[in-house]
Specification:
With about 250 residues, the protein is mainly alpha-helical. Helices cover about 75% and strands about 0% of the residues. The protein is built from eight helices and no strands. Helix 7 crosses helix 8. The N terminus is likely disordered. Keywords: Cell cycle, Coiled coil, Mitochondrion, Nucleus, Ribonucleoprotein, Ribosomal protein.
Length: about 250
């Protein structure tokens, strides 16, 4: 090799080596600072695994309910944005619901509205309500006591009422029996009138029976009038006797 070319070759190799080391050092530092962010991939993979584990065929909302979680992570309707719904979610699932617990306290407007409602719905104080309840209880006790006295008084008359009822029943039974005997007697008189056995359903028998009954009623009416006259005469005689004794 030519001596004049060799130093130049060596110089070129040296410069190339220095340039190589000068450029690779920052690249190494840059490579050391690079991190691969695969968090989304891990979460997606975990979600896919969890989805495959669910063999219940339930909807996500129902699956969350069965497992004690909030049914919807994000609002699905306007009802899920209301204060009432979020209060319910916090009351059911607590901190895991993701609801700010401050909404569970009523606002000043709600407190004022509640106070106005209670002022109309419950206008009496506790003492007034206690006194009213005591008066009502006292009135009820007095009513019960009065009812007990009435029952006791009626119970004392129970024997008398039984006797009166039995007397009425006996009187009614006697009247029914007397009417039955009277009917039988009239039927027998009608049979004797014809002198032979006749069917009570026969027209002649019915006519004669009606005639006998009419005559019997007339006799009874006449007897009642005579008894009434006798009673009046007896009263007049008693009055005359009393007047004569006074004179």
């Amino acid at each position: 090799m030519n001596l004049s070319i060799r130093p130049n070759f060596i110089r070129c190799n040296l410069l190339a080596s220095l340039r190589k080391y000068a450029t690779t050092s920052p690249e190494i530092e840059q490579n050391e600072q690079v991190f691969i962010d695969d968090t989304d991939d891990v979460q997606a993979r975990e979600a896919e695994i969890e989805k495959k584990r669910n063999k219940s065929k339930l909807s996500p909302a129902h699956y969350n309910l069965v497992n004690g979680r909030r049914p919807f992570e994000t609002p699905k309707s306007t009802a899920h944005l209301t204060v009432k719904y979020n209060r319910k979610m916090y009351g059911t699932y607590g901190v895991s619901s993701g609801v700010n617990p401050s909404i569970c306290w009523p606002t000043k407007a709600e407190i004022q509205e509640k106070q106005e409602y209670e002022a109309v719905a419950y206008p009496y104080t506790i003492r007034e309500m206690i006194d009213a309840a005591a008066a009502k209880r006292k009135e009820e006790q007095a009513r019960i006591a009065e009812r007990d006295r009435e029952v006791a008084a009626k119970f004392e008359k129970l024997d008398q009422w039984k006797k009166e009822l039995n007397a009425k029943i006996a009187k009614k039974t006697a009247e029914v029996q007397a009417a039955k005997l009277k009917k039988e007697r009239l039927v027998e008189e009608v049979r004797r009138h014809f002198g032979f056995t006749l069917d009570p359903r026969d027209e002649r028998f019915q006519e004669m029976l009606a005639k006998r009954e009419k005559e019997q009623k007339k006799k009874e009416k006449q007897a009642r009038m005579e008894a009434k006259e006798k009673l009046m005469l007896a009263k007049l005689q008693q009055k005359n006797v009393a007047l004569n004794e006074k004179s």
